Amino acid sequence: MRIEQKIILFFTTFLLSVICNAHTPQKSKSIFSTSGRVEILKDNNITLIGSASSVTFGFKGKECTIFVKAEDHHNYIIIEVDGKYINRQQIQASQNTIPVKADTNGDHIITIYKATEAANGNIVFTGAKGQLFKAKKTKKKKIEFIGDSITCGMGNDTIAMPCGKGEWYDQHNAYYSYAPITARSLNTDFVLSSVSGIGIYRNWNDEHDKEAIMPDVYENLYLNKDNSKPYAFGFNPDITCIALGTNDFSQGDGTKERLPFNEEKYIANYINFINTVYKHSPDTQIVLLDSPMVNGEKSQTFAKCLNRIKDAINSEKKHKPVSVFIYKSVTPHGCGYHPEIEDDKLMAAQLAPYLQTLLGN
Questions:
Q1: pLDDT digits over 200-236, tens only?
Q2: Residue 155: helix, strand or coil by DSSP?
Q3: Would you say 312 and 322 are in contact if contact means Cβ atoms under 8 Å apart?
Q4: Which phi and psi (to 5°) does residue 194 adopt?
Q5: I need a labelling partner for 144 at 20 to 30 A (CA). Which of 11, 186, 252, 285 fits?
Q6: pLDDT in tens, 329-342
């Protein structure tokens, strides 16, 4: 090979390398920190499964590029830079290349949250491009929120699409459910284990005939009946808030036969479920939450049940005392009689001071 050919080959290879690197996302899992229910795949892609599950990393300069894709159909993420909410972004069932810009030059921390829930399908983070670095992790108190559609943030965000339009998950914004709002106000880390329509002994429109209830799915990574991938736990929350009961008390769609609420079954299942939570987080302090979507005589029964559960668990004196938190009236204004973002903020404003007393300084 002549010297001229060698020079041409060298520069061709170099240019191809530059071009490929400009479009190939960095996947090193040592850079990316995760939170919530996620799965790290063999190729170092990260599957965001549960509501508000997330990936965090740092970038230098004013811009980086993230690469994400939805499985099966469109889905949604939230982008946060330096603790500031940037936007709720729809992503398609193909590779999405999304530039993210900061206000100033320097070092920045970006977090990508899943806005929807496990039942809406997976979002796969395939990497990022830029001057990336691993964000420092500061030690914080931790809260796990176990719940249903309210905890998921279902129907709370109608900015881009009004209620009744699009798919049932097009108004999901888990970032702004009462749970993450509460956690951020307390400067705590958080995990959501939540499924729309789910209950303790029955679901919104199912008497536990065909659908799984929370005790069936909690220990499964994908929060469904598939137990081939168990959830690793390990989060070890200081506090665990459980908000389950709205769907147990529900009348369903009004056309399918619905049995009367079974108080004893609800209480027995709840106690058993709490013992499952303790199996994985024995040192956590459990708080039982009622619901702003249950009112009238049902709300009184709800409170009575939660207090019976609390007394039964506390009588064993094996763990930190269980407590009950009852919301003051919050009228839901979101889709399907769910809280909208402003209602979620009102709920968080009530709950956060109570949890602060349990967390201490």
A1: 999 999 999 999 999 999 999 999 999 999 999 999 9
A2: coil
A3: no
A4: -140, 145
A5: 252
A6: 899 999 999 999 99
